[in-house]
Amino acid sequence: MFLHGGWGHLLGNALFLWVFGNNVEDLMGAGRFLAFYVICGLAAAAAHVAVDPGSILPTVGASGAISGVLGAYRHGTRIGALVALEGGDAALAHDIAMHVAAVNPEYLSVADVPAEMLAKEREIETEKALAEGKEIAGYIKGRVLPGLPLVQNFQTSLNEVMQKNTA
User: Is the pLDDT score of 34 beyond 80?
Assistant: First the structure.
């Protein structure tokens, strides 16, 4: 678990441990953190063996332990969202990140929604709409990130704000 595939691997894991590990250790305490780290490494090694028991590749468990630390990392009671944006400004990026964190969209675009899910949901929603006399045009729009109303302003969608800011 403390073996690495080379200097780059060692330095990368050290960086992630330095950036994220101290926060997790602060929450858990040193003893619990060490036990957690070892358990994550052992679980990663066990997962490797379970997935491919006949593998002749060496198992390097250090990244599994670091992955466990990253999974345990959190911003206290806050949540975070990372947004890559072309165009716009820092305020727009902040608003989009807040929106993503608040609504937790399932997909980035309609193209990302699996066809079988679309077909099944259309069937269900069509049945509901016919029974209630409603339209289903907004169903897909309500589950895809750009079509969702902004948390900060429910009168506009994220797509409209991005187009306005050429982002």
Answer: yes
Q: Where are the alpha helices (DSSP H) in 5-114?
A: 7-16, 22-28, 30-51, 62-72, 90-103
Name the token pair of 13. Answer: 């894991």
Is the pLDDT at 92 greater than 80? The verdict is yes
Backbone angles phi, psi at 107, to 5 degrees: -140, 155
Domain locations in the chain as residue ranges: 7-72, 90-164
pTM of the predicted model, to two decimals? 0.45
- CA 52, CA 74: separation in Å to the nearest integer? 31
Q: What are phi and psi of 149, to 5 degrees?
A: -65, 145
- Cβ contacts of residue 156 below 8 Å, gap of 6+? 149, 150
Q: What angle do CA 92, 166, 98 make, to 5 degrees?
A: 20
Q: How far is CA 69 from CA 42, 79, 115, in A?
A: 13, 16, 36
Structure tokens at 150: 């902004």
HSE of 160, CA atoms in CB hemisphere, 13 A: 10
Alpha helices (H) in 52-155, listed in sequence order: 62-72, 90-103, 115-132, 138-141
